[in-house]
Amino acid sequence: MVRLCQFRFAAVLVMCAGLSLLFRNAAAEPAAAKLELHVVKGFQQEYSLSVPALRDNDLVMIDIGAFARALRFVHKRQAGHLTVERDQDGKRWFCHFRDRNNFVRFESPGENGSAERVIQMASPPRLIGESMYLPVTDAVRIFSLWIDRQITYDRRKASIEAFLWSAPPVSDDSRLGILSPEDRSIGAGIVKSFSGPTRLNALEVDELANGVIIRIRATGSPAVASFIKPDKSGMAYLTFQQAAVDLSEFSRTFTMGLIREIKALPLGNGAVQLSLAFNTGMFTIKSTRYDWDSRSNSYTISALTNVDVSEVYRQEKEKRIRQELLQDQQKWKFDTIVLDAGHGGKDPGAIGPAGTQEKTVVLNIVRELGGLIQKEWPDVKVVYTRSDDTFIPLKDRGKIANRHDGKLFVSVHCNAAKNRSAKGAEVYILGPHKNDDALEVAMMENAVIKQEADYEERYRGFSEEYTIISSLAQNAFTLQSTEAARYVLEGMQEKTKLNDRGVRQAGFVVLWTPSMPSILVEAGYLSNHEEERVLRQKSTQQAIAKGIFNGLDRYREQYERQQVAAASAMP
What we know:
six-stranded mixed beta sheet; Aminopeptidase; Immunoglobulin-like
C-alpha cells in the first residue's frame, strides 16, 4: 500500500510539472532559435548544420523530426505520434514519441520478435504547428540511449556534439527501460532463462576509439563472479567461482590498443580467473565496469579512456598514411619486368645487306635477357610481349605490360639508316624528337602500324602533337625511364664493342601505352654491313643481353634504394 501511494504521489508530481510547463508556456509564444549540430561518423566523415529549436525563457526545445533528419534517420508523423527509424545490417530500429506523453518507446529487432524498452522523460514532447518539440536535454539523452552513441549538449555554446564513430563502453543506462516478462502492456520480449553447468565459450575484444569492450560468452547457469578493477600497473581480475573453460582460447596477447594481454588461470575446485593487463603507459583509464547480460548470457568488462578526439583523428590519419604508403610500396615493388622483342611475324623489321632480319636478332636478345633475369632475380616475374615469331600490334604490347602490372617496360630493336656508315647503340625514352636522326628512327619503327588491318582507326590522330601529349602522360616516369636508359646504355658499352650514341627521346608508338617507366633499346645498326655481321653472332647477342641486364641491375638497386628512403620517411 505504501509503494502504491508513493507511485501515485510521484505520478502527481510529474503531472503537475507537466501542467506547470504548459501554463507557463501559454503566457507567451516561444521564440524561434537554432542549435548548431556537429556530427562525427568516422575518420574524415563529419558535417555540421543547424537544427530548428524554440526558446522559452531558459528552456530550449528542439524539433525532434529535424534532429532525427540531421542524424540521417528517417522519421514520420501521424497526428500526435512521431516515429524515428534507423536501418542497420538489413534490420530496423524504431523510436516512438507521443504528444504530451512522458514515455518514449524503443523497438528493436530480436530473435523472438521485437524487443522493447520504455524510457521516462522529464518533460513530454509537444506538438507545435507541424513539428514535435522536446527539451534538448531530453532529446540528447533519448537519442544517445537509442542509438548507443555519445551525444552531448553544450548549453553555453548552444550546440550539440554527436560522436557516432563507435559505441561507448557499457554504461549504467545500457539496460534502462527494459520491460519485464510480466509486463504485457506493450508486448515485451521474454528474457531467457539459463540452466546447467557454466561454461565459458568465447572471448571477444572490441577496441573502440574511446575504450575497449571485453565479452565472455557463456552457456549454462550464471556463474558467481567478482571483478577487481585495474590497479596502478593496469592489472585487473575477473574470477569465476565455478566454470569450465578452454584455457588456451582465453589467453591472448594484443600488440596495440588499451588491452595488452588476457590470461586464463585455473584456481582449483573449478574456479577460473582471467587476468587482464591494460596498457596504462599509453592510455589513462577513466572508468571500468563489469556486467552480466541476461539476454545473451555474456559477461562484459568495459573500460573507458579519456579520449582526445583530435588525437584519435591524428592517429587514424597517420595510420591511413602508413597503410597507403605501404600499399604504394607494394604496388611499386620491382616484381615484374616486361620484355618486348620488336616486330615479329609478317613484320621482319629492319633487314641488313646480308638479309639479317631484325625480328630474329631482337627475339634472341630478349630470350637471353629473360633467362638472365630469371636466374639472377628469381623474385621477379618476366613477361614477354612475344616469345616466338608472332606479329603483335604496337598498342597491344603496352596493354600486355599494363595488364601484368609491370614495373619496367624494355623494348629491344635493331636500327637502320640511309647512311650505311651509321653504327652504335642508342636507348630511347618517349618524348618529342630533338633531331632529325631521332625522328627518322621513330618513323621507321612506327611504320609497322600500316601492317595492321585497322591501323587507320586504331591510330587515328597520331601526330607529333599527340606524341607530346603522350610524353606528358609519361612525365611521372620520365626520371626513372631516363635513369634506366642511362644504366642500360652504360652496361651495353661495357659488355660490347658497340659505340655509345647516347640516350635520346622520340615518339615511339610502342612507348605510348605502358603506364610504367619505359625504354626502347636500339642494339645496333643492321644497315651497317660490319655491325650486321656482329649482331647476327650468338656471342654478340649474349653480350648485349648481359650488358642490358647489368644496366637493369644498377637501375633496380637505385629504384629499391628510393623505396627504402620513402619507407623511412613514413610518419
